[in-house]
Write a structure and sequence with these properties.
CATH topology of the largest domain: Dna Topoisomerase Vi A Subunit, Chain: A, domain 2
Distance between the termini: 65 Å
Bound molecules: zinc ion
Number of domains: 2
Order of helices and strands: HHHEEHEHEHEHEHE
CATH class of the largest domain: Alpha Beta
Strand content: 5-15%
Number of helices: 8
Helix content: 40-55%
Structural class: alpha/beta
Number of strands: 7
Largest sheet: 5 strands, mixed
Strand order of the largest sheet: 4-3-5-6-7
Shape: elongated
Length: 200
Amino acid sequence: MLNSSDSIHRLIAQLARLPGIGRKTAGRLAFHLLKVPREEAYELADAIRDLKERVGFCSICFNITEDDPCPVCRDSERRRDTICVVEEAMDLAALEKSEGYRGLYHVLGGRISPLDGIGPDDLKIKELLTRVDETIKEIIVATNPNVEGEATALYLSKLLKPLGVKITRIARGLPVGGDLEYADGMTLARALEGRQEIDQ
Ligand SMILES: [Zn+2]
């Protein structure tokens, strides 16, 4: 059976695994939680449990969602002939906030990055290809404007071109090497507006 100090050590060890939290901060947080009212500590535990139990991925676009399909895929007001491809669900959220786009999305779950051991098979690329049929008119590749994002865009355009769909890349108005996620809404909307067809 665990005694109280085992419980404390266990919590400290778990907290210390979180990014940006060292052992010292983990210790401080653990002792803080020891002192707060039971309800407050349980609320944190419940929030973490809910996150893992309720939030999953959309089986169509791989957006983060509590319902499958996600609200974007279910939205009948959106254009269904355009798919915007992004690296992460955070990028989708940023584009949605910019209000410059009213089509569908596809979340790759990352970008091709040989240095990190991430190849095409680690991303939702096959799933994207199965979505492209004659109803899809355009695919906007909105991977990040850095080396890996560009390489991923080129890879996708080579795969998609034979399917007879128009492939565009968001404009370069974005800060090079930057993250979509951190760009302001106006810049994102303009980058989408100024997208250009990829030709190789
Ligand atoms: Zn979806």
